[in-house]
Design a protein that fits this description.
0% strand, 6 helices, mainly alpha, 3 helical TM bundles of succinate and fumarate reductases, elongated
Length: 141
């Protein structure tokens, strides 16, 4: 039996292809934001003012409250809008990346169309709520 080939012109882009690409790019974005968090913290003095656990906690959620119990003397550089925007982007990419993984599992294993549609809606609501709560915590602390 001969395998079927479809030309690139006929394949096109659909939602699944776009989300597949987004998942790969969001993983790269999370690595980038984590690297920015580590380098930024080390530049601001984390090497001598905090332990590794606090540094990692800061890296993945740049919340100024994460450095309160360390030896950091001045919290002002740790609570700028740059870090809040970086944290907000990290929260968005992490939530959407993870919940797209959940959506992929739902699509692969559930066959009932009504249940799949309902769970897609549930995943979208969870994404919006989780992102909103994460960004609220970052900007109000």
């Amino acid at each position: 039996m001969k395998s079927r080939t479809v030309s690139m012109a006929k394949r096109g882009f659909n939602f699944e292809t776009t989300m597949w690409i987004f998942t790969r790019l969001s993983a790269l974005a999370m690595y980038l934001f984590a690297l920015i968090g580590v380098i930024g913290a080390l530049i601001m003095g984390a090497r001598t003012q905090m332990n590794m656990a606090d540094l990692i906690r800061w890296t993945f959620m740049p919340n100024p409250n994460h450095v309160l119990n360390t030896n950091v003397a001045d919290l002002v550089p740790w609570s700028t809008a740059f870090w809040k925007l970086t944290g907000s982007a990290f929260v968005f990419f992490a939530a959407s990346h993870g919940l797209h993984g959940v959506l992929s599992v739902i699509e692969d294993y559930l066959t009932h169309p009504g249940l799949r549609k309902f769970l897609r809606l549930v995943v979208f609501v969870i994404l919006v709520v989780m992102t909103a709560i994460g960004i609220y915590v970052l900007w109000t602390s």
